[in-house]
Amino acid sequence: MYLSSIGRPAAGRTDSPDPAERSGRRRLRVVGANVFALGAVSLVTDVSAEMVAAVLPAYLVFGLSMSPLSYGALDGIYTGATAVLRLVGGYVADRTRRRKTVAGIGYAMSAAAKLGLLAAGRSAGAIGLVIAFDRTGKGLRTAPRDALITLSTPPESLGRAFGVHRAMDSFGAFLGPLVALAVLAAAGAGSFDAVLFTSFCIAVLGVLLLVLFVRDRHDAAPGATGTTAVSPRAVVELLRMAPVRRLTAAACLLGFSVIGDGFVYLLLQRREDLALGWFPLLAVGTSLVYLLLAAPIGALADRVGRLPVVLGGYAALTGVYLLLFGPLHGWPLLILVLGLYGVFYAATDGVLMALAGPVLPAGLRTTGIALIQTGQALAYLASSVLFGLAWELWGPESASHVAAAVVAVAVLATALLLNVRSDNGSDNGPIAGDGAGATV
């Protein structure tokens, strides 16, 4: 069976309800309470994060006169420099089976980083260190959080569950820039400190929601029948599993093709000569589309296959990069670019993790998710630095066209990589402990 069918209910299963019963159950409850609780935590945390992220690129480039290369390095740190800690967080969460605790530490670190930005002032070096600390927190929490979603959801509904979670997450991303604008309007246009302090208070609320409402979920004890004991050797064995190895390689390819939100919005601002006051609203446009489409696209992925949806999202990203220096101008350009960018996120963010969940051994699910996310984040770090360098050497237009070509190549390579059979023409068989009967 092709990898693109991972996550669909396997034929001949007798332990799942019949279609009519399952359909009725879905009408009563789309996803479980734990997924909604995790979504609420992400919603509030993203309000806090996007308050800062919406104004940070303009502040660094225009306020501190940072070069595109320097911004690219800092943007890469923002996502990728602490990526190895995703593996640490995933391994510790699997080893201790306390995924909620590890995620909570990560959320608390990101909250504290908002106060760190207050202390950093105008020092680019200090800002970089604080951003690294913030991303360390994100690295620790992301894999345990996504593992909790997979453990709280039937395998055939993973796309829907991740779609609902990402929709709530994106609603927070939609609100964040608006809250930042409201704070600036109330406290004054240059009151960056007020934005940071408000962001810190909201982040603390997110931590409280996690503590009070999210329940830890446990699979079978490590080493029990049908599970994999958690050990460094077992982690290495993950990469010997063909589907995990291919998914990790694909995640690296796709991560390398992404240049980052800040660059896209900066290029739009330069192209249309937008006033800096409008800059945070570019992220709002993307988040609105993401919010509206995340859940429907997640449900679509469960029905038609998750791999085609992911590849379609990266095809939309190719369109974004080409349009940045295409024939369109004005509102048509802004609407089309932000719309396609929202489609890209809705089709890729949660769906890639839904694709990964069923092929990972139960006892190493968090570690496996972290492994895939780490590869993607490290590739993104390299991409951000190289795009900033290309901008300085060749100019933004040529750099954008090269980025579009890289995405197209990554989509083709991923399609070939994940749609393969074993050499003898047979399937590799189900992954032990995946609980879904998925084959690759």
TrEMBL record:
<dbReference type="Pfam" id="PF07690">
    <property type="entry name" value="MFS_1"/>
</dbReference>
<feature type="region of interest" description="Disordered">
    <location>
        <begin position="1"/>
        <end position="24"/>
    </location>
</feature>
<feature type="transmembrane region" description="Helical">
    <location>
        <begin position="170"/>
        <end position="189"/>
    </location>
</feature>
<dbReference type="InterPro" id="IPR020846">
    <property type="entry name" value="MFS_dom"/>
</dbReference>
<feature type="transmembrane region" description="Helical">
    <location>
        <begin position="195"/>
        <end position="214"/>
    </location>
</feature>
<feature type="domain" description="Major facilitator superfamily (MFS) profile">
    <location>
        <begin position="34"/>
        <end position="422"/>
    </location>
</feature>
<keyword id="KW-1133">Transmembrane helix</keyword>
<dbReference type="InterPro" id="IPR036259">
    <property type="entry name" value="MFS_trans_sf"/>
</dbReference>
<keyword id="KW-0472">Membrane</keyword>
<feature type="transmembrane region" description="Helical">
    <location>
        <begin position="331"/>
        <end position="356"/>
    </location>
</feature>
<dbReference type="GO" id="GO:0022857">
    <property type="term" value="F:transmembrane transporter activity"/>
</dbReference>
<feature type="transmembrane region" description="Helical">
    <location>
        <begin position="247"/>
        <end position="268"/>
    </location>
</feature>
<feature type="transmembrane region" description="Helical">
    <location>
        <begin position="31"/>
        <end position="56"/>
    </location>
</feature>
<dbReference type="GO" id="GO:0005886">
    <property type="term" value="C:plasma membrane"/>
</dbReference>
<feature type="transmembrane region" description="Helical">
    <location>
        <begin position="377"/>
        <end position="394"/>
    </location>
</feature>
<feature type="transmembrane region" description="Helical">
    <location>
        <begin position="307"/>
        <end position="325"/>
    </location>
</feature>
<feature type="transmembrane region" description="Helical">
    <location>
        <begin position="274"/>
        <end position="295"/>
    </location>
</feature>
<protein>
    <submittedName>
        <fullName>MFS transporter</fullName>
    </submittedName>
</protein>
<feature type="transmembrane region" description="Helical">
    <location>
        <begin position="76"/>
        <end position="93"/>
    </location>
</feature>
<feature type="transmembrane region" description="Helical">
    <location>
        <begin position="400"/>
        <end position="420"/>
    </location>
</feature>
<dbReference type="InterPro" id="IPR011701">
    <property type="entry name" value="MFS"/>
</dbReference>
<keyword id="KW-0812">Transmembrane</keyword>
